[in-house]
Fold this protein.
Amino acid sequence: MDIVRQNAEQRIVFSSHALDEMNAPDEMISTEEIKEVVFNGFMIEDYPHDRRGHSVLLGGKTSSCRVVHVVCAPKEEYLAIITAYVPSLEKWEAGLMKRRER
């Protein structure tokens, strides 16, 4: 988690996919909410062997009182935001921080 926050302090870069997801009519996630999750949330899952490089799934409750998930990848000089979404009870257990068993 330290490397994620350290890189985010340097710079946060949003992928086009992340921006598309954040701006979806049913999501509308602000960059401030992303920062809240990055700096105040916690790691839900770690993907050290992802084919695109190490990434993590973060989750947290924002000041607007909703849970947001952020998939990000620490790079040498920045934190890359891969995607972000508001989780649903369809895929996540109550509290929205643990994946439902398949």
Strands lie at 12-14, 42-47, 55-61, 67-74, 79-85.
